Amino acid sequence: MKNIISRYLLLPIGLVLFFQYSCNKALDLKPINEISDADYWKSPDQFKLAANAFYGYLRTFTDVMNDNPHSERRADLLYTRDGANPFSSGSNTIPLTDGNWNTGYSRIRDVNYLLSKASEYSNPPAIAQFVAEAKFFRAYVYFDLLEQYGGVPIVTTPLSVNSPELKAPRNTRDEVVDFIVKDLEDAIAVLPLESAIGATDKGRVSKGAAQAFLARVTLYEGTWQEFRNNAARANTLLDKAISNSNAVITSGQYQLFAPAILGDSAQKYMFILEDEKSNPASLGKSANKEYILANRYSYTQRQIRFNVTKTCLNNVFWGTKKLVDMYLCKDGLPIDKSPLFQGYATTRSEYANRDSRLQYSFMIDGNYYWDNNNPGSRVTWTGDALDIANSRGVNNNATNSGYGPQKWCTERRLNDNEEGYDYPVVRYAEVLLTYAEAVFERNGAITDADLDKSLNLVRNRINKTMPKLSNAFVSANGLDMRTEIRRERNIELFFEGFRVDDLKRWKTAETEMPKDLQGITWTGTQWQTKWPGIASQVVNGVLRLQTGRTWSDKNYLLPIPSQQIALNPNLTQNPGW
Amino acid sequence: MLLFLFLPLLLICFTSEAQVRTVSGTVTDSKTNAPLGDVSVTVKGSKAGTSTDANGKFSISAGAGQVLVFTSVGYQPQEVPASQESFSIRLVNVNQQLSDVVVVGYGTRKKGSVTGSVANVDSKVFQDRGPVSSPLAALQGQVPGVTVTRNSAQPGRETWNFLVRGNSSVNGAEPLVIVDGLTLPSSTALNSMNPADIDNISFLKDAAASSIYGARAAGGVVIITTKRAKMGKSVIEYNGSVSRKIIGLQPKLTDISTWGPLMEEARQTDGFAATDLWYRYGKLAEYAVANNIQTMTAAEAANNLATLGLSTTGFFTDVKDFVFFPGTMNDYLWGNATSTEHQLSISSRTDKAGYRISMGYLNDGSLLQVGDNSNKRYNVRLTHDYQFSQKLKLESNVSFEKNDIIQPANIGAVLNNGIQPGLPASGVGKTGQPYVWGSGIANASPVAIANYGGDAKELNARINTSFNLTYNILKNLKAVGSAGYYYNHTDYRTQENVINWYDYAGANLISSLSPSGTNRSFYQRASRKEAYYNLNAYLEYNKLIGSDHDIRGMIGTQYERDEYNSFFGRTLDVVPGVPPSLSLSYGDPTTKTVSEAQNHYALGGYFGRFNYAFRNKYLFELDGRYDGSSKFDANNRWKMFYGVSGGWRITQEKFMENIKFLNDLKLRASWGTVGNQNGIGLYDYIQLLNLGYSTGATSSGFPILGTSPAVKVSPGGLVALDRTWEKVQTTNLGLDFSVLQSKLSGSIEVYQKVNNNMLIARSFPAVLGASAPAGNNGELKAQGWEASATWSDHVGKLTYHVGGNISTYKTDLVNYGGQNIIGLGVRGLNTAVQGYPLNSYFGLVYAGRIQTDKQLNDYRAYIIGNNIGMPSGATTAQANARLALGDNMYKDVNGDGKITFPEDAVYLGTSDPRITYSFNGGLEWSGFDLNFIFQGVAKRTIIRDGNWRIPAAVVFQAQNDAFRNQWWTPNNTNAWLPRISSTGTVNNYNYYPSDWVAENGAYLRLKNLVIGYTLPKNITQRAKIEKLRFYFSGSDLWEITHIHDGWDPEASTNVANTGDANNNNQSTFSARYPFYRYLTFGVNLTF
Questions:
Q1: Cβ contact, residue pair B689, A109, below 8 Å
Q2: Chain A: residue nearest B471 by CA?
Q3: What is the DSSP string of A280-299?
Q4: Interchain contact, B599 vs A563, CB within 8 Å
């Protein structure tokens, strides 16, 4: 019997027990087609690939052209074909969820993830640059959140579902700003000069980019505080704006794009510069020293895949009277002061004798223009008969608002979505204008020398004959220095996603945003006969695009999405919402 | 742990008894002569007892003067004096149903002694059905509680699905399929199985029956046993059939003669002027039809427009000539087809060995008349049994299945909403060139796309082998070890050609485009391999103690593992006209792409069962299983599942003896838990990093750093360390009855399933920065009941039976993490909303049609603040921009003065079939036989998605004729549909999800009707033929449906085309194939 037990029973039982052990082992399966975290973070190159992921956060065409927080759709200088935008009209409501809030924090998680891995890395100097890039991008994302919501919770490590931070209240606005400044200053200390970045790393964040961005942040917050009667805080920040923008200027690493060969069209072609022939002078991207940090594209490697030209060429976006009227005349004076202004009598008269940027930012009735179509695009690039024959034809402005924008629109033959020009995340012109504004707002005044080293470079880039802005010019013509500095910023940076945030920090949104959006002046002008169909939309002689716009104090900050408050009751809603 | 539980039981077998002498014998069925296993043999008046083995053999100690008692469920007990030493006992069957052997987990049981909920179907359901693409196709309506659905009638892609007792989890819980003792990786493995090889199928429906399979049993368990050789002389069996596939329900489309007036009216109603393009084209079509003109050059069209007094400016400038041919897209794409099937099997068995070899061939024809389209299936199966000794037996199963599908390369380009009618049926113009109406691929003839666009081939090969070794260690103890290997390889070869498209005259080359609309040809190859193996071993012990106590025990262990890998290669610019090959393309390296995927998972477990029966009257069963899955973190990997059940055979009681009409009555109750681990990632507990890189200039997410697009690595989602198995608790109550000399028998069951730690997505504050992995936080409750009954009897030589079953279930998502937000989803369909059944429809409440100006004016007040897209134009606006007479009105349910979704939405029903039923009948008389089965769904809600649901919705598409002249007009104010419009705003509003557009998905269908005749044996035997039968069978011959748009009630709600993820998302699957009716003529021949 014993024998039977051992032979027939213990053996199978032993087998079962053996199975149990091996089975347990056999259930430990590791992924075979994916990268496991445990195997990664062993070399600087691996950190570099992780840092590469952050470059996708950079602002790009869709950010300013689709309905996004910094989009021109949400400001007051352009109207969109799609009709009134609730953010622009001040009629937006508290959303249940907000993709921008979520995206911001998922990016912060990814950055923090790299930083936490970096803190465990054995040879910190070898990865210092990628740590600095990570800090730059953490600051970049927090600034984006600050502009939208004000103070937000600061998270510095990758969280788990049990982290107390999930239930934390919002940090104050000042804490967030200080955190951003600290991250950027840490990054600036490590990041290389533009000239020290080799060809294989072109496009990575430089010291100059971080300084320029810090100048943007501190100008933004400095003026925000200034116009909310917090002078001490404002001055500290504005000092940083001045010193950092000045550091970029004095570094000698950057210059405005103004090749003589392109004359007064230089700025226009900068925006559509490609390494394929995209301008009459056949200049390529290497000629551009103005873009300090860019979201970089190329026809052969990374097309924009957004229908930029079709979207922008007097189609989705329509210019407004407010914007067009802002352009100075060639004598440096606003249209209401300048004797050179030709009025609105004809469809072309208001474009005469104006800042050159007007004719390159908007299309003039009766002129010839090019786009990416065939026919429609440039052939000889000289504007000769053949070029004209292939153009879009005589431009008819009797459509949309009557002001047809052309910024961001290529003239070279391409299928839709194939454009390959870079998006300027930070460009030198902004740094120059930041310097001028920061100096003026810090001191209540600005010297002619400071103007000449900054704002006037931008103003005169393609307006070689326009008088410089100076204290004497202002006083002689009864102008206001602040208005002129802001005018320059509005003109130079229009359609680059600054306007709505500028109005918020200047605290002028409450007066600017509720104004009707208007198109061309119709009554008593040539438009009346050329474009009779819009008669019913003309109010006080001007084509009215939108009325009934509102802006109240609460609109200076976006509401926190209600689901987030439900999930974390310690998050307080912004005032007024 | 279980081991200790069973150890004492195992020891019982070694208690020996005083011996008088040993008598032995064989027990067989009196009718069939088949040996009967599991017959209890006891010595009357003593405690001694035993039972017969699988071959009907027994031996027992008894004195010569004693009496042996033979009892078996379903048989008349027999008492025999133990005077001899060798017996041949023939038991008389009194109740076939109870004596049927059913397969349960790791073993078999007589139906009469089963305590769980087990349903069984035998090979009869697969007979006479004509070619069925999948065994599942024949199961519709056969088993109460088993819902079988299909998505298409596309050859080789009918994608039959089935659910046992509805859903058990929002994550889905597929039934576990077991063939000859070994699990398959997924139920799709059934799709190429030869139904003729199936002997019977058991459905384990409640947890008590299925918890022995713990891990994957939440969706129910299906055990398939294939045919094996029977004792006796060798048998050669041939079954052949030829079937006619006839187009079933499908929307009828408007032809050019009815399209013109429809378009004219739609554009007029929308307020367009006579200069409107489509108004003019509608008028031109009417003119062409009236004057019998089939083609017009652009110049002629201009003349004719002028004749009609219409403007010619801007009239389809890219169309060189216009066509007005009769017929519709459905007419020339679809037609009837023929399928043939041949089955041949040879089987033989001796004492020592038995084998059965079967071969099957199916050539499934396609209703699609254009391009290449077919499915061919080849099956070979060998089952082999070998008895090494009295103790050791090996059962082997080797099956090879192959099915080859050929179809047009891009099915979505062929079968879609189509363009307006008038196209030439041949797809080519006057000179035989592929015809395009405008210039894009959407304007091209679908006939030509199918004929010239290239083919997609999908070649499947499946090998399924299993080996079961049984060793009878002792009389009452046996060990079974099984090993199985399943291998599935799919080879995809897809080529799309560039077609040169011409105008009808053949004078102008208009465009050169491939079916997917690009100007590049391509060839792609994908290989998908799945290898799965499964090992299990168990010990089984049976003991009859005395005559009263029947004890059985079983313990075992199992391991299964699945390895998946696939790779893919694609090249653009293939050389036209040569055999497709990745090597024969002239595209530069950037036109070539490759990719790979691979993964694996494993499950392991230990299981055991204990049965106890007292006098075959009180039945008790305990099942347990301890399971681990590689999908969970080691700490939460293992989980115990168990079930307990009991049965009471009331008719065995003394007090029932006088109730004669009751032959059998059994009450069953069970409770148990089973596991589910569906819908989650394979490695969610391991932190992964995602690699991203550009795939070329059109890949936009990768900023250029240095000289090339950035390669990036970013952290994957949060790891899931804290989650474990979903545990589904099932309670089941059942009653089996058999009355009136067992002429009427049936059962009733009531059940409840509760999944109270269902894996659901959890919401955390967004500062977490990643979406949290699903956690065990949800609860789903499902309740239902089933009933079935059969009456069988004979009148003289006529035997007949009628029967039916009905089942219903309802799910309730009790806890879904508070996610009770009702979304618009797809036409109001919400897969999961807390407090409602899964797959619920929500919609507005229809409040009648706007018939008067006053109603219109009053209703306009609701425009303010609505979010349902009410046409908001002023009363002076064009008709298609404002509300008008003939539009729908909806109720402001919550009375807040505006109509919004979801605030004013109500629950409309679920898209799951809530109540299913079937009834069947049959008779036999002098060689004639007749059988029928009706099958239906009594409760289901459908809201159709897609474009053939609204008249004139998209002007340039084909139009559904079912709606023609059914819309509201001032003269037809009681019309079924609102005013006709070709404008999205108006249609989106009028056809907004509501109780008005919700359709009743109930139907009743004559699923199958068979008439057969078996030639008298005395005639056939002269030709050495054992049996010769001819039959005629029809499937899906007739139905009642409430669906208005013409689609079959079983068709999917969106009747969409979809891509295949394993084949670079190439559009290869279409739900737009109409379901068909089958007329089959067949022959059964047995030698």
A1: no
A2: A8
A3: TT---GGG---EEEEE--BT
A4: no
Residue pair A303/A419 in contact by the 8 Å Cβ criterion: yes
Specify which residues B50 forms β-bridges with.
B41
Amino acid identity at B481: G
DSSP state of A349: G
Which among A50, A105, A202 has the least Cβ separation from residue B706?
A202
Hey, which bits of B740-891 come out as E strands?
744-760, 775-795, 798-815, 829-830, 840-843, 846-849, 888-890
Angle at B8 between CA B5 and CA B14, to 5 degrees: 150
Q: Which residues of chain A make contact with B762, given a CB cutoff of 8 A?
A: 161
Residue B195, judged by CB atoms within 10 A of its CB (0-12, 13-18, 19+), counts as buried
User: Would you put residue B750 in left (φ > 0), alpha (ψ -120 to 50) or beta?
Assistant: beta
Partnered with residue B162 across adjacent β-strands are B148
Residue A21's pLDDT is what? Answer: 62
B485 CA: distance to closest CA in chain A (Å): 17
Among all residues of chain B, which has the CA nearest to that of A420? B697
ipTM of the shown complex: 0.92
Q: Is B519 on the interface with A (CB under 8 A)?
A: no
List, for residues B16-71, the tens digit of each pLDDT value. 344 477 888 888 887 777 788 778 888 877 777 777 877 788 888 888 788 888 88
Please state the length of chain B: 1087
From chain B residues 686-715, the ones with a CB under 8 A of any chain A CB are 686-692, 694, 697-715
Comparing CB atoms, the residue among A27, A567, A571 nearest residue B763 is: A567
> CA of B348 to nearest chain A CA: how many angstroms apart?
33
Question: A29 vs B692: CB contact, 8 Å cut-off?
Answer: no
CB contact under 8 A, A301 and B694: yes
Contacts 24+ apart (CB under 8 A), B52-57: B52/B26, B52/B27, B53/B472, B53/B475, B55/B26, B56/B26, B56/B27, B56/B28, B57/B24, B57/B25, B57/B26
| Distance from chain centroid for Cα A389 | 36
User: B-chain residues within 8 Å CB-CB of A105?
Assistant: 766-769
Q: Which of B474, B599, B688 sits opposite A35 (nearest CB)?
A: B688
Amino acid at A528: Q
Amino acid at A204: R
For the record, the structure tokens of B467 come out as 């080996």
Q: Are B804 and B1004 in contact (CB under 8 A)?
A: no
End-to-end CA distance of chain A: 85
Residue with tokens 């973190």, as numbered in its chain: B633
Q: Which of B479, B697, B706 sits opposite A303 (nearest CB)?
A: B697
**pLDDT, position B173:** 79
Interface contact flag, A53 B714, Cβ < 8 Å: yes
Q: What is the DSSP letter of B697?
A: T
Nearest to B706 among A9, A30, A200 (CB): A200
Q: Which stretches does DSSP call E strand in B816-955?
A: 829-830, 840-843, 846-849, 888-890, 906-910, 915-925, 928-939, 941-942
Least confident of A6-15, A240-249, B669-678: A6-15
Contacts of A317 (CB under 8 A, 6+ apart): A65, A72, A78, A79, A80, A81, A311, A405, A495
pLDDT by 10-residue block (mean), chain B, 1087 residues: 39 42 83 79 78 81 82 79 81 71 75 79 77 81 84 86 84 85 82 86 82 79 88 88 93 95 95 92 96 94 94 86 94 94 92 92 94 94 92 93 94 92 93 90 93 95 93 89 93 95 92 91 95 92 84 91 94 87 85 91 91 89 91 87 91 83 89 86 90 89 94 91 87 91 89 90 88 86 93 90 92 83 86 90 95 95 88 87 94 91 92 91 91 92 90 92 94 95 93 94 92 90 88 92 92 89 90 92 91
